User: What shape does this take?
Amino acid sequence: MPPEIFTEPAVFNRIAGRIRVHLADPVLVHEALVKNAHLLSKGDDVRRALGPALGQGLLTADGDHWKWQRQSVAAAFRHDKLQQLLPSMVDAARRTQKRWNTAPGGHIDIAHEMMMTTFDVIVETMMSGGHDVDIHRVEQSITDYLKPTGWTIALAMLGVPEWLPHPGRRKARLAVDYLRSSLVKVIIERRRHPGDRADLVSMLLEAKDPETGRMMTDTEIVDNLLTFITAGHETTALGLVWTFYLLSRHPEIEAKVIAEIDAVTDGQPVTADHVAGLTYTRQVFSEAMRLYPPAPIITRTALQDFRLGEHDIAAGTVLYVPIYAIHRHASLWEEPDRFDPSRFEPEKVKQRHRYAYMPFGAGPRVCIGNAFAMMEAVAILAVLLQGAHVRNKTPATMEPLMRVTLRPEDRLMMQVVPRQNKSPAA
Assistant: This one.
């Protein structure tokens, strides 16, 4: 992204003959993504980067096809439904805690650990146990698929044909084949033995378009399952990775988190009932996602000419909402590069423009799983931090790398150090 977008409200440039607009002014972002959402599509860049894996699922679809899919799964993310899932989130964190207790020398790859933990949550809550899905291979396949997306997006921006070979292309195709074939097996097995399960798979199998009455094909169900597996566990995992990284560099903030956990739990093991009371822990995770938003950019393409603020936007113009830049914009945040969870105290949040902070996107296409992710992250942090400190063993400052999501550029190795005076469960 152009460096001036960290200080300017908007930046216009031309790449391969097409106008591209970066928007960092929250007022313009609101006008584009909310008021004019119907005039924008996901665009060719997103289709080429994510379409081979996610097909026409909730993240990549447009128009009426997106709308009816969203309506079909909305019930799964109601507050009362999410509350029922909290015990599973806590249990998944406990399994990670046990795994950490046996790590040689306490050394862990925190990204790998968080991917495993959040995938465990997705499998238990959305797929009723996972049906023998190979977690390790799924994790590697998602990595293999996302790794060459920088090439995919760059070639799309230049208008290069999709068939042109590029580094990582073959490995990415094999990864997609594995991911989609694994989920086809899940669907076939569920059709044979439906049982009495109120999970996402069941909801997708029963979903009907309210206007036509048609149900989802197996391909469409795979599109959406894979969307929730990738978007639903990868982004939360990365948010947790950056949170642990920041806490390891700010022990005074880690101490406040641990103090809150001890106060809310009264020294007892963390349970689902404790999560709502962990307000400072939630602020810490929110601030980590400000500095390192797991989904760092939103892309849209104008379907027709329209007016945006003082600017005329022509059909075909590509709009970028660089969330990473907005979250560190000099005009929106005081000392924008400083880690300060107090920014998310309720009164400070009220004083800030709604679209100065949007780790889950904005407008009608805001992430449907945002409440799920926040609840999950706080539960995982509480369980793991109650029993241990996690210390950074990587000496250099970790740089972020954008591969659709915002990952650490290198492996982030950490050491688990058991806490003194920890809870009985830990």
